[in-house]
């Protein structure tokens, strides 16, 4: 059996509904971030049934998957000038921080006879993308105003990515103020302030909204039922919508400490070992080319020992089940593991 990614659509639906209901109370809309599942149209359809109408992906190739779906499509990674034609073709809004790029989008929009919407990214401290200086963003916005086929809709910021900086009243209010500054300088109305990702959801969940934020872009919390600020499971949401199922190709009893002089293991780590005596281990035919280690066995009495590019080793000593070679074994996955499973061509995708 090939490794299989089992996707539970009902669980995703339930999670989306909870997040949407919470944000509706504050009139904040959701852009559901789809890069984890490569913008899978079946998952997008499920999210639409839960009332979500905007989808954001970092890659144009992914957005092509939903080109015929009637929803608003956002490109959330800064566009490359070289892909301007496709950006205008496949996205309705893109997030930008470079005038030259916006100018290229304008040229393309003219050719395609479209108006392309943009948000300007402002960096409030996490130090990934975005204008850092208020004068800079104002100057750019003024030049952008003269572009005939570009419409500036507001601002966005990215948090808790490079620097791990959390959203708070202070940095998000700073973003809202930048939007107000642009509105004043351009003498226009800008209706979108997109205040971060899943970590910003925590603020609303804790009834601590920031006035002026109108949108957040959420991937993780909807897909994994996880509070990303505390990295903890949210009571009442589903953490196991994505399960990897793989076949056992070996079961043997071995010592818990490797024998011999030790260098680096596969994929560059230098693991530490604890002596727990002889343990019964199962090897699964799936590895880091298809998954990552942020996952948990459904059988609570087992645990992951490690893995390399094509193997995953599980300690099954304490399990109540009598596993045999040829049996399958299941684990639920968090972000990185699921991301790889979606990208790997060796993994079969199955909806349940
Ligand atoms: C990935 C991404 C998001 C979503 O982040 P989550 O932590 O999955 O909610 C939002 N905005 C941008 C720009 C992103 O790249």
Automatic annotation (TrEMBL):
It comes from the Bacteria. Pfam families: Ala_racemase_N. Gene3D superfamilies: Alanine racemase (3.20.20.10), D-serine dehydratase-like domain (2.40.37.20). Keywords: Isomerase, Pyridoxal phosphate. Residues 7-221 form the Alanine racemase N-terminal domain. Its cofactor is pyridoxal 5'-phosphate. GO terms for molecular function: alanine racemase activity; pyridoxal phosphate binding. GO terms for cellular component: cytosol. This is Alanine racemase domain protein.
């Amino acid at each position: 059996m090939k490794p299989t990614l089992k996707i539970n659509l009902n669980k995703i639906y339930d999670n989306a509904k909870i997040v949407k209901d919470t944000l509706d109370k504050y009139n904040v809309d959701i852009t559901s971030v789809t890069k984890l599942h490569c913008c899978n149209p079946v998952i997008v359809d499920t999210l639409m049934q839960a009332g979500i109408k905007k989808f954001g992906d970092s890659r144009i190739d992914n957005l092509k998957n939903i080109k015929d779906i009637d929803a608003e499509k956002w490109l959330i990674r800064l566009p490359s000038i070289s892909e301007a034609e496709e950006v205008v073709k496949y996205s309705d809004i893109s997030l930008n921080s470079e005038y030259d790029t916006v100018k290229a989008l304008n040229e393309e929009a003219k050719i395609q006879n479209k108006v392309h919407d943009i948000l300007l990214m402002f960096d409030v401290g996490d130090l990934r993308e975005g204008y850092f200086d208020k004068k800079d963003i104002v100057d750019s916005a003024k030049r952008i105003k003269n572009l005939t086929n570009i419409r500036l809709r507001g601002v966005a910021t990215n948090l808790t990515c490079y620097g791990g900086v959390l959203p708070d009243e202070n940095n998000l209010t700073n973003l809202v103020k930048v939007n107000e500054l642009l509105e004043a300088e351009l003498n226009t109305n800008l209706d979108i302030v997109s205040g971060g990702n899943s970590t910003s959801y925590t603020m609303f969940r804790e009834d601590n909204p920031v006035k002026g934020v109108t949108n957040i872009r959420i991937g993780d919390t909807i897909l994994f039922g996880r509070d990303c600020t505390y990295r903890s499971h949210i009571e009442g949401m589903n953490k196991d919508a994505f399960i990897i199922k793989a076949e056992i190709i070996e079961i043997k009893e071995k010592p818990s400490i490797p024998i011999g002089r030790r260098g680096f293991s596969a994929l560059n780590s230098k693991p530490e070992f604890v002596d727990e005596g002889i343990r019964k281990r199962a090897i699964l035919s799936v590895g880091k080319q298809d998954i990552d280690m942020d996952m948990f066995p459904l059988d609570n009495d087992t645990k992951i020992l490690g893995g390399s590019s094509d193997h995953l080793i599980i300690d099954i000593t304490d399990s109540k089940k009598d596993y045999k070679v040829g049996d399958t074994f299941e684990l639920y996955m968090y972000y990185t593991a699921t991301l790889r499973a979606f990208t790997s061509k060796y993994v079969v995708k199955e909806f349940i």
